[in-house]
Amino acid sequence: MTEEPNVDGYRPLLFSIAYGMTGSVGDAEDIVQDAFLGATRARRAGTTITDPKAYLTTSVTRLGINYLRSARVRRETYVGNWLPEPVVVPAGDPGPAEHAELSDSLSMAFLVLLEALSPVERAVFMLHEVFGYSHAEVAGIVGKSEVNCRQIFARARQRIAAGRAAPSPARRAEGAELARRFFDAVTGGDLDALLGTLAPDVVSYGDGGGKAPALATPLAGRQEVARFVIDLFRRLTEAGFGLRPAQVNGRPGAVLHDLDGRVASVIELDVADGAIQAIHGVVNPDKLGHLGPVSTMTQLDHPTWRSGLTP
Q1: Across the chain, how many H-helices and E-strands are there?
Q2: Closest CA to 179 of 276, 306, 293
């Protein structure tokens, strides 16, 4: 029997593609594992795989397309805002190997934009725009003609308009400094300092999935967001919650934890043009379990939650 090639080096790329397709850490890991198992079964059945990377990329992409087709109904009935499961790397840590190739373009805001695309459009757009595959390569992966893939890509780019904007090193440094000022302000209760970090049209999004308190609809505006965040973190501090800085989906952020170290929320900050443009907070416990034991914020009684948040 021919010795199976060592394909573990492809895992970071395959995870990134699967995560970009699904927005789920656990499902992305399952898809990558299924692709590896499928390749092993194919080789043992006598199939010759001359290019393992291409074979596995094709398998992961097609599994991702199938996943999205089955997940569409669940997404349409999701309670409140949908945000992807966060990929968290502790501050100052280069991150585990399986996440090493996670592109800056897979931020929460970008993945939410991709939700507007059909499964095939998402695959075509992401493979070409984010991972740099040629249209000919994409055609082979998704099983369509190169001309068709060019048309699909153009249509997808028009639909999401914003495209991708991978941060430069200077922009990353700017983001890290703004994040430091933001979290210093919220933990210190300094409203004026917090206002100085936010864009005038900043938007705050929360994902509780109907299982934890979260914004039912986005909250917009510098004053509105600042007042909400300051009051929320005052209550969190009183209840014993704390923050640990982290990189979240390639952006500055933090993990909120309770007194026992359990994860209660993950926060990601979108920074551009010298200000925080968006705040994404994931509190749905189903999306935090891959980070360790999960806490909740259900004991907090916030007036904004009573007037318009879920659950």
Answers
A1: 11, 9
A2: 276
How far apart, in whole angstroms, are the C-alpha atoms of residue 105 and residue 21?
Answer: 13
CB 191 within 8 A of CB 226: yes
> How big is the chain by its Cα radius of gyration, in Å?
20
Which pLDDT score, from 0 to 100, does residue 273 have?
87
pLDDT tens string 163-182: 455 555 556 777 889 999 99
Per CATH, is 169-310 categorized as 2.60.40.10? no
Does residue 248 surpass a pLDDT of 90?
yes
Q: Please give the span between the terminal C-alpha atoms of the chain, in angstroms, as a whole number.
A: 56
Structure tokens at 272: 């551009």
Residues of 237-266 as b/e, b for ≥16 C-beta within 10 angstroms?
eeeebebebbbbbbbbbbbbbbeeebbbbb
Sequence ranges of the chain with CATH classification 3.10.450.50: 169-310
Half-sphere exposure of 79 (CA within 13 A, CB side): 13
Angle between helices 146-160 and 135-142 (to 10 degrees): 100
**Residue reference for tokens 């003609």:** 145
DSSP 79: S
Question: Reduced to 3 states, what is the DSSP secondary structure of residue 180?
Answer: helix
DSSP assigned state of 173: H
In the block, which residue shows the tokens 């909740």?
296
Supply angle C-alpha 120, 123, 127, rounded to 5: 150
208 close to 285: Cβ distance less than 8 angstroms: no
Give the three-class secondary structure for 23: coil
Q: For residue 89, which amino acid is it?
A: V
What's domain 8-160's superfamily in CATH? PhyR, sigma-like (SL) domain (1.20.140.160)
